[in-house]
Predict the structure.
Amino acid sequence: MAIAALIGPATKLLGKFIQDKDKKAELAHKLATMADEHAQQLALAQIKLNTEEAKGNWFQSSWRPLIGWIAGFSLAINYLISPICAGFGVNIPQADMSVMMPLLLGMLGIGGLRSLDKIKKVDSKK
């Protein structure tokens, strides 16, 4: 994040131009919280976008589960079915998982946030 990368150097600059320790600490705190506020705004914007995407028809709102199923099947074929079949002399070609794994892991992260919603009993279908 660009703002987070600028906080350290900006805080060091405060020490060179501001002599009052209380004012310097106050400004350093404001700079530190700026990155958190920006990250929160980005997360809220993403949640709003996800909510709007889910309002569409079946085809529009089902693309994420479809991608999840494809990634899950690819994982099962590469690491379960293909090795078992190889033991019986059947050779099943494997997909390049270097492309699929970041997608699958990213979707599992989204799934983890949904689990957090369930734990906190948040109704995400409103």
Remarks:
- The mean pLDDT is 77.
- Residues 21-54 form the longest helix (34 residues).
